[in-house]
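NAD(P)-dependent dehydrogenase, short-chain alcohol dehydrogenase family, pasting as requested.
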Amino acid sequence: MNPTYDFTGQVALVTGAGSGMGLATARAFAESGAAVVLTDINPDALRTVTAELTGAGHRVLGVPCDVADEASVAAAVHATVEQFGRLDMAFNNAGIQAPPSDAADESADVFDRVNAINLRGVWACMKHELAQMRAQGSGAIVNCSSLGGLVGLPGRAAYHAGKHGVIGLTRSAALEYAPRGIRINAVCPGTIATPMVTDMIDKGELDRDEAIANQPINRLGEPEEIAAAVLWLCSSGASFVVGVALPVDGGYTAR
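Structure tokens follow.
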């Protein structure tokens, strides 16, 4: 059973909230009483999720956002504060994967696109979230890295470079902002049963059986398991946790 939290009166922002880990986390924040701002680059998915959570009686706001565009990120944070008056928690989750590639054959376009979202996007989100939280003197941010931020894998150089970078951003900003009442951490998911992973499996870019075998728990993770970790990191239960890169990977990195 997952723990429960009371985030009544608090405001959370989740990027990539249209599906997968972002959607699971947005639901969990809403079910725990928070007002939630949902952002996603996919307008159809965003409308569907916003309608679902609104229909369930939650306070939510859907804001289209491309995290690779800093102005779009700034507008999303502005909309959050304009609608709800503050920003207490953020899960910077939006990310993409790239097909496996020999490092010598990786194109600059692919490298730049992956890291515009996975690394620069996290930087932009954190930057604008911190500006608001700094003014408040409080807040909690969780950045989405990956097991790919902790290890290397053949064929994944561009993706892993960005995910390693997210951990560097997290640790440095965490040291800077801990004295100001703001906690920043990262979560490092293993292979999770999300639409992105399903798409990779369908395209032959990921072997499902091999992915399961590589996680000692002997299964894929569920988006809700990442959501549970994110909510804990944002909660008072993690009040002394600063600058960590928390593996939630079924034991992959324990070997």
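Note for the archive: Residues 29 and 231 are 7 Å apart (CA to CA).
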